[in-house]
Fold these 4 entries.
Entry 1:
Amino acid sequence: NAGVMQNPRHLVRRRGQEARLRCSPMKGHSHVYWYRQLPEEGLKFMVYLQKENIIDESGMPKERFSAEFPKEGPSILRIQQVVRGDSAAYFCASSPRGTGETQYFGPGTRLLVL
Amino acid sequence: GQQVMQIPQYQHVQEGEDFTTYCNSSTTLSNIQWYKQRPGGHPVFLIQLVKSGEVKKQKRLTFQFGEAKKNSSLHITATQTTDVGTYFCAGRNGGSQGNLIFGKGTKLSVKP
């Protein structure tokens, strides 16, 4: 049973470009969470999605960031017009049911904005 | 909003010494989870505590959940170099719909 998969593992973008981060949850998991981790910092919750629905986006910046989890395919975290402050590790986690469950983390995408 | 604080931020120990990290929440938690993240790696789930005063053990690791369900601790006995990493606590309130709030973690280094 494959774990949570994220790609790319490393992504370099120039300021103003778009970054697309993909997350495939564990088989049988229908709940996906995105977190951002700055160097030497903890994990900051961004958004919680189920298939085709955003359940909680209270941690998402109001501008430039969006997330989706379509019926088919991976969850996508999209950052438009990236700035240097967006450089961070972005982790996706999944769980089989609701937020009361253990979350299984993917390997993360390390985004570097030049 | 809810805050989860962890202390210390860093801990350097000699191999064989014990290590403890503490987690405190500003609100009562429905449960608390602990994760370990190795350098360059991703968080890996260790354990979940649900009951007031609960104590769980995993080999050399002992996890406690406070009576008031507002604090927790992780204690490692006789640390080994394989224990190196950052240990995060993550709390949840508001029943099963509350999202996990992570502490900033305690980074443990072990000198052989």
Entry 2:
Amino acid sequence: AQRVTQPEKLLSVFKGAPVELKCNYSYSGSPELFWYVQYSRQRLQLLLRHISRESIKGFTADLNKGETSFHLKKPFAQEEDSAMYYCALSGPLIIQGAQKLVFGQGTRLTINP
Amino acid sequence: DGGITQSPKYLFRKEGQNVTLSCEQNLNHDAMYWYRQDPGQGLRLIYYSQIVNDFQKGDIAEGYSVSREKKESFPLTVTSAQKNPTAFYLCASSTGALGGYYNEQFFGPGTRLTVL
């Protein structure tokens, strides 16, 4: 069964400190992993995906298949990073098909000034 | 912030009543989705549709029904058979799989349903 686990419901760090939001997954094949973010009074939106291997707003995430993890990291937290973060997984690509995402429980990140 | 609209923003229902949540998109996306969000449980997929006149059950479809008669619209009906319908409901859409990978899902603002 597909499952995504975010062990921390709440995470609080000081501005300028490093941030790591944990995500572990359970999937028998080769998953696609994503991080979605919801800022206050805004819609849920894609932050980054593992296949792109890019840095968005200073955040990076590396897929570790051995540890089945996809932790989100940022070396220096900023106050505007405060938001709800969801890790999500989808199964194999279905050509021209809809994507079934499985979400984790979410982590609320608060950056203290 | 257009693209996907959901109405109403808040909805109150008496027990035993069916209610329909609206979801409209003008992004020309083929795929549309309905999720339910409960505190501490993240988002769970209710139904999804890859194309007009086609839809499939997600992980928690019991007590819900959908239709996809138009590309732009994907309404969700919460029936009286749904045991615990009070939740936040999110609609999303995407272009589906293009270019060898899935494109991102775009989300609506959500509808909060409360059963009285």
Entry 3:
Amino acid sequence: EVQLVESGGGLVQPGGSLRLSCAASGFTFSSYWMCWVRQAPGKGLEWLGNIRQDGSEVQYLDPVKGRFTISRDNARNLVYLQMNSLRVEDTAVYYCVTTSRDRSWDFWGQGALVTVSS
Amino acid sequence: DVVMTQSPLSLPVTLGQPASISCRSSQTLVDSDGNIYFNWFQQRPGQSPRRLIYKISNRDSGVPDRFSGSGSGTDFTLEISRVEAEDVGVYYCMQGTLWPWTFGQGTKVEIK
């Protein structure tokens, strides 16, 4: 059974940093792109970024480029979202996702709530 | 960025009756490999999103066959042939062809 479990969420002040982790299990982690998607309270979905299987390519949404970093550890089946210079508008539930555009493969974690507030 | 526009944004439905959601993209979604990476997602209350349909009309594993997707060019449709109580939630269209991948605003489906 595929499982994605996010951790590391919490309350942080504006300008602060936080690192989310996503522990993957139940599939060959190193064979899949991994992604992060967020959802502000009561709002829609926003696809933040993707990281290639070997970590050699990472894509970012413009509003987080330069502030957020996606990385992965294939030996430990972990993907990370390092968030720096956090803003109030970054308050959201952050989902870890593995997906394939071409076939029936799409799994989401339960989400981690990040609240940016003073 | 590609703008995805859904309609309606609210859809009251009767149990057992059909329902339809439309999505229009601001530009064509044909990838360089010839595929159109257009998807539909369902988010039930209090749950993580779940993909229902990929590449316009392909159902993901475990998705009931009452869900179907269609479309071409810039216009796409999700149809539920007979709405059941478990279908309540918000439905999002999403394009995965052009970066950044973008979602529609969401359509809230509720039972009348």
Entry 4:
Amino acid sequence: AQSVTQLGSHVSVSEGALVLLRCNYSSSVPPYLFWYVQYPNQGLQLLLKYTSAATLVKGINGFEAEFKKSETSFHLTKPSAHMSDAAEYFCAVSGAGNQFYFGTGTSLTVIP
Amino acid sequence: GAGVSQSPSNKVTEKGKDVELRCDPISGHTALYWYRQSLGQGLEFLIYFQGNSAPDKSGLPSDRFSAERTGGSVSTLTIQRTQQEDSAVYLCASSQGQRNEKLFFGSGTQLSVL
């Protein structure tokens, strides 16, 4: 079975500060992992994905995530938050049967 | 089309009525997914179509929910005898069908059951 846990439903950071959004997964098969972002009044779009190549994955808008098998984690980071990063972020795992399982989301607020 | 299209964008209905939500996936995408997004609940998987295979209906919350996909393209999600707890945003996504491929999402249908 596959599942995703996102710690922290709401995260607030100051503009220019480090962004860290946590994601832990459970998977019975080697996982593929994704981060999606949903900006206000927009649809979900892919930020980045891990598909068993490099463990450090770089995505759009300066975000990156590191796959750590020993910790079953795939945390999302960005060195310096920008106001435009305010959005809802979803971690997802793809397991057997082409299913995609999403976390409950983390709402990021950026304080000027 | 250029992206995943969902209609209507908003639907208000009365409790007990039936509703149909439509999804037009990206042309050529073999996989189609329906999710429900409720406040604080994340994306709840409902149903998954892959090519001509039998759909995975394991996420449908009750027998009031059903979906079909005609000709391997357009999909319709039907909710019968709607209840207030059915109020949510219903999202459709499509992909090329591999588990390492990203999902392309539509803008969703906001369903409000009064």
